[in-house]
Design brief:
Layout lengths: L4 H14 L2 E6 L4 H6 L2 E3 L1 H10 L5 E5 L2 H10 L4 E3 L15 H10 L5 E4 L4 H5 L3 E3 L4 H7 L7 E3 L2 H11 L4 E2 L5 H4 L3 H10 L4 E4 L5 H5 L3 E2 L2 H9 L5 E5 L4 H8 L4 E4 L14 H10 L8 H19 L2
Parallel strand pairs: 1-2, 1-3, 3-4, 5-6, 5-7, 7-8, 9-10, 9-11, 11-12
Helix pairs in contact: 1-14, 3-4, 4-15, 7-8, 12-13
The protein binds iron/sulfur cluster.
Iron/sulfur cluster binds next to helix 9.
GO biological process, one term: 'de novo' NAD+ biosynthetic process from L-aspartate
Protein name: Quinolinate synthase
Keywords: 4Fe-4S, Cytoplasm, Iron, Iron-sulfur, Metal-binding, Pyridine nucleotide biosynthesis, Transferase
């Protein structure tokens, strides 16, 4: 019987060795999950990490379904399990492969850029993926084509439009968690902490982005605080990242800008569920090989562009 958190961690550590498992965790995961992970990162970092795993038999993915699917697609010879496979992403579910096919039919010949927050089926219907860290670079790489379809996050799409000064054809998806943050909250918190800098994620609304000092992916937030003279930040993305930021930059103060920036799906992972997944090996994430091969082309295209200077 594993009673205390330390008992559970000890059992996880024993099993991860026995099973030759690597534990990956997104920066939105609960603090105690991040603390036992072999690697903590954003979607792009986790994709790169998953693709590079060579000396493990099992990947325990602490995040949401689309991320585990991406790990499975990039690492087809390894078993990928999720501690709670019911952890989905409402934004990813705002578009399906059928809906994307109908969207493409209305815009023949237009390339499709697909945010990684999407199902494997949707990626398989897309030309190239992007993350919030590289979306601008990926869209720019397509050149001066008349139309580019961007799915499913309209707000990341609008951020790219603003950065590049060009229009995209946007799917009207959004993240319900980031949607809750409005400019009035930023104004109120700035009045309370006038010396703080505000950083928000490009999944927030355009009026929210306009009120912030920085619009950054989670990985870019971590990079910014590694070497900064700024003492205090108001953090406008899912609250899990505050743990990552505090570990990265203990000299800074990080304050959650809103109590509503908490993704319920990201919080489904717990230490007992990780232990259970390692014990049973039953919560396997698998992707149909035909879909996986097509989706991999879109992910590989992203990784290729992203690595270019
Ligand atoms: S924070 Fe938003 S985009 Fe990320 S998993 Fe949760 S619902 Fe999806």
């Amino acid at each position: 019987m594993n009673d205390t958190p330390q008992d559970i961690i000890t059992a996880i550590n024993r099993l991860r060795q026995e099973r030759r498992a690597v534990i990956l965790a997104h920066t939105y995961q609960p603090a105690e999950v991040q603390d036992i992970a072999d690697y903590v990162g954003d979607s792009y970092g986790l994709s790169v990490q998953a693709a590079a795993i060579k000396d493990a038999d099992l990947i325990v993915f602490c995040g949401v379904q689309f991320m585990a699917e991406t790990a499975a697609i990039l690492n087809p010879t390894r078993k990928v399990i999720m501690p709670d496979p019911s952890a989905g992403c409402p934004m990813a579910d705002m578009i399906t492969a059928d809906k994307l096919r109908a969207f493409k039919a209305k815009h023949p010949g237009a390339p499709v850029v697909c945010y990684v927050n999407s199902t494997a089926e949707v990626k398989a219907e897309s030309d190239i993926c992007c993350t919030s860290a590289n979306a601008v670079k990926i869209v720019k790489s397509l050149g001066d084509v008349p139309e580019i379809l961007f799915v499913p996050d309209q707000f990341l799409g609008k951020f790219v439009e603003n950065q590049l000064g060009r229009k995209l054809v946007l799917w009207e998806g959004f993240c319900p968690t980031h949607y809750t943050l409005g400019p009035e909250t930023i104004a109120r918190m700035k009045a309370e902490y006038p010396d703080a800098k505000v950083m928000v994620h490009p999944e927030t609304r355009p009026d929210t982005q306009a009120a912030a000092d920085y619009i950054l992916s989670t990985g870019q937030m971590v990079d910014l605080v590694k070497d900064t003279n700024i003492k205090r930040f108001l953090v406008g993305t899912e609250e899990g990242i505050i743990h990552t930021l505090r570990k990265t930059a203990p000299h800074c103060e990080f304050i959650a800008i809103s109590q509503f920036l908490r993704c319920p799906n990201m919080k489904k992972t717990t230490l007992p569920k990780i232990l259970n997944a390692l014990e049973t090996g039953e919560t396997v994430i698998s992707v149909d090989p035909v879909i996986a091969a097509k989706a991999k082309k879109a992910i590989d295209a992203m990784l290729d562009i992203s690595r270019r200077p």
